[in-house]
């Protein structure tokens, strides 16, 4: 079956169109052009702000003119991750989608349903003539995935609505009324590139086969972190023999749990058997540790080309210990909301370039003071190791409001449609709601979406049947919006 044959057809039509438009974070020019073309073709009024956020405006359908103006909101960018053996240029190539039973996924890349499916629903409502609704604004924000730049740059007066429905959640039947805030710490190790020893055997240690995933939504799942696993090996190597480190790399994005990592290093020929034994033992240990959640993990060793330069000994020693000491995973659970991760850290990426090794981490918490404390803890680890530290893009959380009117309307609509209670939750992942609320403090907000799994990884997929359920729910909510005269 083709994607455009799925129901609701109008939503899948626009999602398919969106998958054909390259839209990496910070490179949203093509999707912005697509949205502007859509607005012009459908005679929809729109405006674009200084960073590229777009808001389209549609008047109420007959009989709904008195309703409170609603803002529907999604972000246009996507996380760009692919399997090592997949050839794909995210700047130019369309996403190749595959209908696989009950799920839709991409061919070896992220799907971009986060948050392309939300954008598709907005476009479907804007393009339709038979959907009852009050006055609407459809807000499309840029660069949510690598800094929330779009939401951060919103200015007063750009929006008029009093209710905001965010379409960036990932579990059908769940209504979200709060989210974590976040920030990042980037540690910079400057090293001296010294001549590589001539009498060493050069090897490449690799960690692969991990699922990866969203560093907010899936941080509690115990998924393997390739950077932490690689560091276990390098630390054991450093404790047991003399060696030289030429290259280290792992992970890619601050909001994705790293799936792959590698290091190129040299040892004396007499120590090669010892290194092979270390790798074999770590591979067995990690497979056993991760068998329930990451069964395809593997740690392997191969030959490498002899480099001309290596990282100086002092930096190598400090780097390995800092990476090993840096926390990863859940740091604390909420005492107020059951099963909610309150605070976490993701050891996200290690990148080497021009005499510098950059280590990027991401801290999240629903409590601002604990977010800051986690960042200070991570900073301390790297500062003790001699790295310089900088803070990246702090953003606020969204404090839950259980008395929200749009929450009540959304819950009533769900009960009316499906005869059961929706779950009301907060989420550890970051949503743009907190930032938007900073600029528009009187907004009443809720977030809901269809079911997605393994977002921010090439295993990202969307459960097809939940899109229809979510769509019906969204349309029912629009009918339940209260009158502005009350």
Automatic annotation (TrEMBL):
<dbReference type="Pfam" id="PF01546">
    <property type="entry name" value="Peptidase_M20"/>
</dbReference>
<dbReference type="GO" id="GO:0046872">
    <property type="term" value="F:metal ion binding"/>
</dbReference>
<dbReference type="GO" id="GO:0006508">
    <property type="term" value="P:proteolysis"/>
</dbReference>
<dbReference type="InterPro" id="IPR011650">
    <property type="entry name" value="Peptidase_M20_dimer"/>
</dbReference>
<dbReference type="Pfam" id="PF07687">
    <property type="entry name" value="M20_dimer"/>
</dbReference>
<keyword id="KW-0170">Cobalt</keyword>
<dbReference type="GO" id="GO:0005829">
    <property type="term" value="C:cytosol"/>
</dbReference>
<keyword id="KW-0224">Dipeptidase</keyword>
<keyword id="KW-0479">Metal-binding</keyword>
<dbReference type="InterPro" id="IPR036264">
    <property type="entry name" value="Bact_exopeptidase_dim_dom"/>
</dbReference>
<dbReference type="GO" id="GO:0070573">
    <property type="term" value="F:metallodipeptidase activity"/>
</dbReference>
<protein>
    <recommendedName>
        <fullName>Cytosol non-specific dipeptidase</fullName>
        <ecNumber>3.4.13.18</ecNumber>
    </recommendedName>
</protein>
<keyword id="KW-0378">Hydrolase</keyword>
<keyword id="KW-0645">Protease</keyword>
<keyword id="KW-0482">Metalloprotease</keyword>
<keyword id="KW-0862">Zinc</keyword>
<dbReference type="InterPro" id="IPR001160">
    <property type="entry name" value="Peptidase_M20C"/>
</dbReference>
<feature type="domain" description="Peptidase M20 dimerisation">
    <location>
        <begin position="209"/>
        <end position="292"/>
    </location>
</feature>
<comment type="similarity">
    <text>Belongs to the peptidase M20C family.</text>
</comment>
<dbReference type="InterPro" id="IPR002933">
    <property type="entry name" value="Peptidase_M20"/>
</dbReference>
């Amino acid at each position: 079956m083709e994607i455009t044959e799925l129901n609701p057809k109008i939503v899948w039509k626009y999602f398919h169109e969106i998958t054909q438009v390259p839209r990496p974070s910070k490179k949203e020019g093509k999707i912005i052009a697509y949205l502007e073309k859509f607005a012009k073709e459908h005679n929809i009024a729109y405006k674009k702000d200084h960073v590229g956020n777009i808001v389209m405006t549609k008047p109420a359908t007959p009989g709904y003119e008195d309703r409170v103006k609603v803002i529907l909101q999604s972000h246009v960018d996507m996380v760009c991750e692919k399997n090592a053996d997949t050839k794909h240029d995210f700047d130019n190539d369309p996403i190749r989608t595959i209908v696989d039973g009950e799920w839709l996924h991409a061919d070896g890349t992220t799907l971009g349903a986060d948050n392309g499916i939300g954008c598709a629903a907005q476009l479907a409502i804007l393009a339709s003539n038979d959907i009852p609704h009050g006055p609407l604004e459809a807000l499309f924000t840029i660069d949510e995935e690598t800094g929330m730049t779009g939401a951060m740059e919103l200015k007063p007066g750009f929006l008029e609505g009093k209710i905001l429905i965010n379409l960036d959640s990932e579990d059908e039947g769940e209504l979200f009324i709060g989210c974590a805030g976040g920030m990042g710490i980037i540690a910079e190790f400057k090293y001296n590139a010294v001549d590589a020893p001539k009498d060493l055997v050069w090897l490449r240690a690799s960690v692969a086969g991990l699922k990866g995933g969203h560093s907010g939504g899936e941080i509690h799942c115990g998924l393997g972190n390739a950077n932490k696993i690689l560091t276990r090996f390098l630390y054991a190597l450093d404790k047991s023999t003399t060696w030289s480190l030429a290259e280290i790399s792992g992970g890619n994005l601050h909001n994705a749990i790293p799936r792959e990592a590698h290091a190129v290093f040299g040892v004396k020929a007499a120590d090669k058997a010892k290194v092979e034994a270390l790798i074999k033992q770590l591979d067995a240990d990690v497979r056993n540790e991760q068998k329930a959640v990451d069964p395809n993990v593997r740690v392997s060793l191969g030959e490498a080309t002899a480099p001309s330069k290596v990282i100086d000994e002092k930096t190598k020693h400090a780097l390995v210990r800092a990476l090993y000491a840096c926390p990863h995973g859940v740091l604390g659970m909420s005492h107020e909301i059951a099963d909610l991760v309150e605070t976490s850290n993701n050891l996200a990426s290690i990148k080497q370039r021009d005499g510098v090794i950059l280590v990027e981490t991401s801290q999240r918490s629903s409590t601002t003071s604990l977010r800051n404390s986690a960042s200070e803890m991570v900073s301390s680890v790297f500062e003790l190791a001699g790295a310089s530290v900088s803070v990246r893009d702090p953003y606020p959380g969204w404090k839950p409001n259980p008395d929200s009117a749009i929450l009540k309307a959304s819950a009533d609509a769900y009960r009316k449609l499906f005869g059961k209670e929706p779950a009301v939750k907060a989420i550890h992942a970051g949503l743009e709601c907190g930032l938007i609320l900073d600029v528009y403090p009187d907004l009443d907000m809720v977030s809901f979406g269809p079911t997605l799994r393994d977002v921010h990884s090439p295993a990202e997929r969307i459960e097809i049947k939940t899109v229809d359920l979510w769509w019906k729910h969204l349309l029912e909510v629009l009918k339940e919006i209260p009158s502005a005269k009350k």
